[in-house]
Amino acid sequence: MPTFKEKYGLNGAVISAVDLVKGIATYAEMKVINVSGATGLADTNYEGKADAALKALEDSDFVFVHVEAPDEAGHVKDYELKVKTIEDLDKRLIGRLLQGLKEPYAIAVLPDHPTPIRIGTHTRDPVPFAIQSPCIDADGVQKFDEVSARKGAFGLVEKKSLVALLFSSTKSSR
What CATH code would you report for 1-102? Predict the structure, then answer.
């Protein structure tokens, strides 16, 4: 497997409470950043992950921040907990990142896979994603869900690397 640097020509870092994600990052020779209080559950340190990501961007070109909490809420089929973890992710991590990022930047938000509450396990359904970049015009999509994302400028993306898509959205700003 090529390293992240060999594949993309960039330095990368990973923030996650999940050992599997950390292991893949290690294998790809990405910097693994441990955050105190990052648990992989609803009580995870969202603010600490955001702050660590902003600090990592001082010497990394790309930072992957993984949050397991909404997935775990899906596994236990707890609707209210899943909504809370998504709201916390939005306000406490993504909101904090957006406030702290310096222009120009590109950011992508997406789940790694669906974990519907009704079945409590992973599915192979497409996942919604959003990219904000100075190289991409807004497409008018106002909601972040599977149906709305398909109506966006990217439509249904198949067999493409989202990382490559994100990096291609930043080419003219480099």
Answer: 3.40.720.10
Q: What is the pLDDT of residue 135?
A: 82
**pLDDT score recorded for residue 69:** 97
In this structure, which amino acid lies at residue 169?
S
Question: How far is residue 7 from each of residues 3, 14, 140, 161, measured CA to CA in Å?
Answer: 6, 16, 32, 12
Low-confidence ranges of the chain (pLDDT < 70): 159, 169-174
Write down the pTM of the prediction.
Answer: 0.91
| Extents of the domains making up the chain | 1-102, 111-174
